[in-house]
Amino acid sequence: MSHIDPIVVSPTAYDELETYLRKQTWTRCTIVSDQHTWAAAGSSIAERARRAGLTVREIILEPGEVVADEIRLLEILRQTTPTDELFIAAGSGTITDMTRFISFKLGVPFLSCPTAASVDGFTSIGAPLVLKGIKQTLISQPPRAMFADTGILCGAPTEMTAAGYGDIIGKITSLADWRIGHLLWDEPYDESIALRTQKAIDSCVEHRHEIGKRTATGVETLTHALVESGLCLVDFGESRPASGAEHHLSHFWEMQLLRDGRPAILHGAKVGVATVMIAGLYERIRQIPREGLAERLGSVHLPGISAERDAIHSAYGSYADQLIHGSEFVGIDKDRLRDVRERIVQHWGDIQGIAATVPGAQDVAGLLRDAGAPTTCSDIGLSAEMENAAFRYAHYLRNRFTSVKLARFLGLHS
């Protein structure tokens, strides 16, 4: 089980942070923030740390868009010293992920102090980073403890809270994809983790109107759900419980926006929109009858290795070779192909049962709208072309058997 203690979500979180620091042996800490999160939380955290007797060093990122890439990582890294004992991440997901990764590489602990209920990464072990233009999640370390001031969370921009809710709604399809991958590709699975994740989803759906209004109850419910999702990743050891095809679509869009020099879109906003799309895909899977299934599978000709390489190059450009080299699915051998088709036929009833756990696309969109979250690509400024490209190419980003992979075997296309 995870060992993040304490996890504090309350109006007095920073007072409890000060008490916590007084009980530890650290003598110095480094607070990582940007200009906005420094004003919202960093300065207050620094004051508490100093009152607890620590020497405080401040790393406030330079103005501009904060992307977890090599440039921003180096900006933080060049300000570290061999005497660093503790890092404190004062910010949302991006700052937390960069602090997590750098503190892990330096062999020192970090504390998470989120400023918005925007992602499930505050208690996670994974650091989603953009390296050489490719979105990758590197396993590093969870925080030693987490302190979230609910007053600050409630005061965060509305779109960030909506993004956090979108990230939770994304677990609806990630859980289904996780089960599909276990069934058809022998991917590791843990039912107890899945049940915990489902409980987090249910709590947010129940309080979605309050989340949309950013009431204290709504934001606290969302934060606890995001924390629980992150803890599930820590306990399982990887991101499968919380990241399926909907996250791959989100990552694809993020990479394309970066490549085109366009502003980023909040992770959870993209995930929510992608979840509507994947829910629609599950609807199409549910419409396929068992009768004639084997013939249908046999009539679908997956692209050959040369065609797949060309497709990946057209979508990813200079990043393509790295994806091709690490893919289990490009050039899949005939024996594995036959095995997967046989499994699909054998387990069609189970697949239909999994698909039935996913609400219809319009129902998912309704859940998002109730909390003020975007539901379509146009809502977040993405074109129909980007929407179609994500369906075609995003699955190459991860070696996971998701609903999109299954759709390719079934001959379903966007």
Describe, in plain words, how this protein is organized in 3D.
Helix content is 57%, strand content 10%. It has helices spanning 13-23, 35-51, 70-77, 93-106, 150-154, 158-169, 171-185, 191-206, 208-213, 216-236, 245-259, 267-286, 293-299, 305-316, 320-325, 334-346, 348-355, 361-370, 384-393, 403-410, and strands at residues 7-10, 28-33, 55-60, 87-91, 110-114, 126-131, 134-139, 145-149. Strands 1-8-5-4-2-3 form a 6-stranded parallel beta sheet, with helices on both faces. Strands 6-7 form a two-stranded antiparallel ribbon. Strand 4 (87-91), helix 4 and strand 5 form a beta-alpha-beta unit. The model has no long low-confidence stretch (mean pLDDT 94).
Summarize the structure.
With 414 residues, the chain is of the alpha/beta class. Helix content is 57%, strand content 10%. The longest helix is centred in the middle third of the chain and has 21 residues, at 216-236.
Number of helices: 20
Strand order of the largest sheet: 1-8-5-4-2-3
Order of helices and strands: EHEHEHEHEEEEHHHHHHHHHHHHHHHH
Shape, per Cα inertia axes: globular
- Report the sheet with the most strands, covering strand number, pairing sense and barrel closure: 6 strands, parallel
CATH superfamily caption of the largest domain = Dehydroquinate synthase-like - alpha domain
Provide tags for this entry:
20 helices; two-stranded antiparallel ribbon; Dehydroquinate synthase-like, alpha domain; Rossmann fold; 6-stranded parallel sheet; 57% helix; 414 residues
Task: Give the topology, please.
Blueprint: E1 7-10, H1 13-23, E2 28-33, H2 35-51, E3 55-60, H3 70-77, E4 87-91, H4 93-106, E5 110-114, E6 126-131, E7 134-139, E8 145-149, H5 150-154, H6 158-169, H7 171-185, H8 191-206, H9 208-213, H10 216-236, H11 245-259, H12 267-286, H13 293-299, H14 305-316, H15 320-325, H16 334-346, H17 348-355, H18 361-370, H19 384-393, H20 403-410
Helix pairs in contact: 1-2, 6-10, 6-12, 8-10, 11-12, 11-19, 12-18, 12-20
